User: What shape does this take?
Amino acid sequence: MSVIDQIILLQDVDNKLFEINKLLGDLPKQVQELTDQEEFTKNSLSEKEEKLKVTTVDMHSSETLIATTQEKVDGLKDKLIDGSISNNKEYDAMMETIDYEKNIIFEKENELLVLMETKETLSKEIDEDKAALDGIIEELNTKKEALNKKVEDVSEEKNALTKEHDGIVVDIDKDTLDKYTQIYEARSGVACSEILDSNCEGCGGYIPPQVVNEALAKSIVYCGTCSRFLHKSEN
Ligand SMILES: [Zn+2]
Assistant: This one.
């Protein structure tokens, strides 16, 4: 195989390697994103469960307070009729205390209502989250498995291409190879250009007839404008 044909082959292999490295770079990120998503769902669920516990405790406190305050009110009401009140002043004071305690009950009952609503909402959300989480985890695991398999396959392909790259470069002299590497990097992976009519396909620059003939003879020639390796097929 002529050196120019090897250079063309090398560019093809190197471009595939470039794409694979890009893909390999992105796959672990995708796996990480899925793992984060699973973690987030689990955390959100345990936060809701914790909130539900607190709400239940608060409800219990409110219920207890309502019950004890109600007992207090009942006791005070008994005193109103059991003859232990001797004058209007005491009666007024007693009524005031009863009103005060009744107001506490009223406020606590309102709080309790809000807590009950919160509990109902949380319980519903937790049930939904739990039902969803199993599905999410299964989906994530399937995706992760597929991604890991892809990483494996791509790594295999990368190894094969690297071998191919190494196999090609041993046959190319150092100066030509250095030139190729320079142009490959400078021209973003397009180091070779075909001559179309009398022009470089890569940059459109004019290629003199002598250079066209040399390219046809498979000699190493470069575009005078963009410095790419030139090649031309017979027809
Ligand atoms: Zn050119």
